[in-house]
Specification:
Layout: H1 6-9, H2 12-15, H3 26-33, E1 39-40, H4 52-61, H5 74-84, E2 91-94, H6 97-108, E3 114-118, H7 124-132, E4 135-139, H8 148-153, E5 159-165, H9 177-186, E6 192-196, H10 211-214, E7 221-226, E8 239-242, H11 245-254, H12 262-273, H13 275-299, E9 302-304, E10 310-314, H14 319-328, E11 331-332, E12 334-335, E13 344-348, H15 352-366
Parallel strand pairs: 1-11, 3-4, 3-5, 5-6, 6-7
Antiparallel strand pairs: 2-8, 7-8, 9-10, 10-13, 12-13
Helix pairs in contact: 4-12, 5-12, 6-7, 13-15
Bound molecules: pyridoxal-5'-phosphate.
Pyridoxal-5'-phosphate (PLP) binds near residues 97 and 98.
């Protein structure tokens, strides 16, 4: 192909970006190493798969795919509004919650603004910020978690958005409800606080913040959630934001008209009805977390106590090498050096046998096998 200096024509913010690095797909490892029986514990997916009730609803919907989906997602928004006791006008649907995070940034953040998030925070926050050409402000973590006081101190008149993941990925750290409430009360109104609760369903009832109810008091608060994790629909891309209706109205002006597809809408509506599947998913996660924590304790490995569906383990200076060795044993985990955690690996909680496969591989590698 002829030479073409595409980069010099592109936006400066985009030129300096590194693409998002997803967990290695099972098929890719199969191709590369010619092995089967691979266990993927790399993308915080639901190890129970897709709820049978959702599978049935999806199968029935296939024949309707010649038509465009409902651009306003009426039935899903209605179901979410009922579940969370909010108005339908407060909900924005997205092609995954990453879509709504991007919509928020594109609605509110300009190249002149600053965006605050924590060190070790979800990589999508700096990615979106830099794409716009805005200034990312990463606040050093405390015990791998958010330093809310330092985040408050970093706010100035150019600050327009703060991203907080609670629980955070990839650390699994969690901010208690009262600390979060105090923080929100101290954030000035010219700053939107985006509270990313992708792992909300895994948090024990007594620990959960009534974050959506807080929007009444804090109109600059936006809560995002997803069907990718506990609801087991990562492959479909379904997420949403709950906000002040005026915020939702603005986001609605720039979103792609059919940003949530027909199958995703159907699956999400049905998933909300399958409480049994959700409960089983959360219970399985609790057991798997205990299994991995027990392994770490037994091996004397440090780990970051996690409120999510993954555990980030300090494996030492050879984390990158260990990741490769695990691949050769058919176990995919997630390196997190890109999150300034070069000594850690993040392991998603799987089925009991999948967690055991990881444990067995770790023991074998430690024994030089
Ligand atoms: C997995 C995850 C999401 C969800 O992304 P989707 O686009 O909904 O799949 C959002 N935020 C964080 C912090 C996550 O870890």
């Amino acid at each position: 192909m002829r030479d073409f200096d595409a980069a010099s024509l592109a936006l400066p913010g985009i030129r300096q970006l590194q693409p998002y690095q997803a967990g290695k797909p099972i098929e890719e490892l199969e191709r590369e190493l010619g092995i089967t029986d691979i266990v993927k514990l790399a993308s915080n997916e639901n190890p129970l798969g897709v709820s049978p009730m959702v599978q049935k609803a999806l199968a029935e919907k296939v024949t309707a795919l010649a038509r465009y989906p409902d651009a306003n997602g009426f039935y899903l928004k209605t179901a979410l509004a009922e579940k969370y006791h909010v108005h339908v006008k407060q909900i924005t649907l997205g092609n995954g919650s990453n879509d709504v995070l991007e919509l928020l940034a594109r609605t509110y953040v300009s190249a002149q603004n600053e965006v605050i998030f924590s060190q070790h925070a979800f990589v999508v926050y700096p990615l979106i910020t830099k794409a716009i050409g805005a200034t990312p402000v990463a606040i050093p973590a405390v015990d791998y978690g958010h330093d809310l006081n330092a985040m408050l101190a970093a706010i100035n008149e150019r600050t327009r958005m703060i991203f907080i993941a609670n629980p955070n990925n990839p650390t699994g750290t969690f901010i208690a409800s009262d600390a979060l409430h105090k923080f929100l009360a101290a954030v000035p109104q010219h700053v939107l606080v985006v509270l990313d609760e992708a792992y909300y369903e895994y948090v024990e009832d007594q620990d959960r913040a009534p974050s959506i109810a807080w929007i009444e008091t804090f109109p600059n608060l936006v809560v995002s959630r997803t069907f990718s994790k506990a609801y087991g629909l990562a492959g479909l891309r379904a997420g949403y934001a709950v906000s002040h209706p005026a915020v939702a109205d603005l986001m609605n002006r720039i979103r792609q008209p059919f940003n949530m597809n027909e199958l995703a809408l159907t699956a999400a509506i049905t998933a909300l009805q399958d409480d049994d599947f959700l409960q089983r998913s959360v219970a399985l996660n609790r057991e798997g977390m205990a299994q991995l924590v027990a392994f770490c304790k037994q091996q004397g490995l440090n780990y970051i106590p996690s409120y999510g569906n993954f555990l980030t383990i300090e494996v030492g200076d050879n984390a990158a090498e260990l990741y490769e060795q695990l691949l050769h044993k058919g176990v995919i985990v997630r390196p997190v050096a890109g999150y300034e955690l070069p000594r850690h690996l993040r392991v998603s909680i799987g089925l009991q046998v999948e967690n055991q496969a990881f444990i067995d591989a770790m023991v074998a590698i430690a024994n030089g096998e």
